[in-house]
Amino acid sequence: MKQLTRICWLLLGIVFIFSGLVKLNDPIGTALKLEEYFEVFAKDFGSFFSVFVPHSRTLSLVLSSLEVVLGVALLLRWMLRKTLWVLLALLVFFGFLTFYSAAFNKVTDCGCFGDFIKLTPWASFTKDMVLLALWTVVFLNQRYLRRVFAKGTTGVMYITIASAVAVGIGVRALGHLPYFDFLPYKVGNNIPKLMKPQEQAKYQYVMERNGESKTFAEYPTDSTWKYKSMEVLNPDVSKPVITDFSIFDADGTDHTQDVLKGNKLLLIVQSTQTADRDRFKDINKLMTEAAKSRKQIQPLIVTSSSPQEFDAFRHDVNLPGTFYFADATVLKSMIRSNPGFILLQDGTVKGKYHYHDIPETSKLEELL
């Protein structure tokens, strides 16, 4: 039991640190997932939860940092009993979220490990129950973890450093782009290719005859077999990774294929209401210079705001150029910055830039 307890203690601490760091890599993505939960709860349990929506980014940073700090505290065995009680509160909270999502099919991806590892609702709930089992073993056998690796002032110093590092990682990711991009629109990915399935779907058919069930690789020609069910054998590669990328103008005319040809510099303005307006002097400069580039870069603007809202916005910030429209969720998946730049070469993502990191035209030309 002593060895088992130590294994559970080590796994629990490592998982919490890993989970927190993955979320801190992309705190805006975590905030979007929290918003989704709050909107669901506001609809199902009352408008009280809508109060938290504007504070999703702060809560994302706090909860993700707390996971890291608690994981470090557990591995150091610092204030072990109190640390375990706080861990229990988080596990119960996350367990409720994942169970509610799974049982009522409300949120299809809990975001437990950000976009790095996608889990189904029931897989997420199972993961939380496994962690709760690890917690139970550790809590009931604390006598085997009596040695504290950081006591007194030293322990406080280590926890303070862990807190500062965790918060620092998250704050920098909030003001720039994620350190590691796990989204379909990451640098190097070819959007047209990801809009097509990697291979044709393969099926197996479950048929029934005289109470007997049998699985066929091909649909049987024998009419005595009656269809029962069908299963896709390669679901991960038989459907496109990107299914909702569509660019259109105010009249509804589709321009998706035009955008995916040649050298394009897309300025993504996810929403005019939340877009940072302070950087548009530099943004406008880059848009103008890119249009004159020797690499024939065509600057385009893509937004999810209404034509009326965007027309007022672009006049307000003196934004030149052709503008199109796209779904808000698509734009949030493309880049975690509002506004932000994406450089395309025949649909391949060559560069992504936060509005705090606006590049020079020469940098764009180097990438093409």
Topology of helices and strands:
Blueprint: H1 2-25, H2 27-45, H3 56-76, H4 80-104, H5 121-140, H6 152-175, H7 191-194, E1 203-209, E2 212-216, E3 226-232, H8 256-259, E4 263-269, H9 280-291, E5 298-303, H10 307-316, E6 322-325, H11 328-334, E7 340-345, E8 348-354, H12 361-367
Parallel strand pairs: 4-5, 5-6
Antiparallel strand pairs: 1-2, 1-3, 4-7, 7-8
Protein name: DoxX family protein
Main location: membrane
Subcellular location: Membrane
Number of helices: 12
Shape: globular
Beginning-to-end CA distance, first to last residue: 60 Å
Question: Radius of gyration, rounded?
Answer: 25 Å
Strand content: 5-15%
Range of helix content: 40-55%
Q: In which order are the strands of the major sheet placed?
A: 6-5-4-7-8
Average pLDDT score: 89
Structurally, how many domains make up the residues?
A: 3
Largest sheet, in brief, is: 5 strands, mixed
Order of helices and strands: HHHHHHHEEEHEHEHEHEEH
What is the structural class? alpha/beta
- Counted beta strands: 8
Residue ranges: pLDDT <50 for 5 or more in a row? 110-114
Transmembrane segments: 58-76, 83-102, 122-140, 152-174
Subcellular location: Membrane
Membrane topology: Multi-pass membrane protein
Organism: Hymenobacter endophyticus
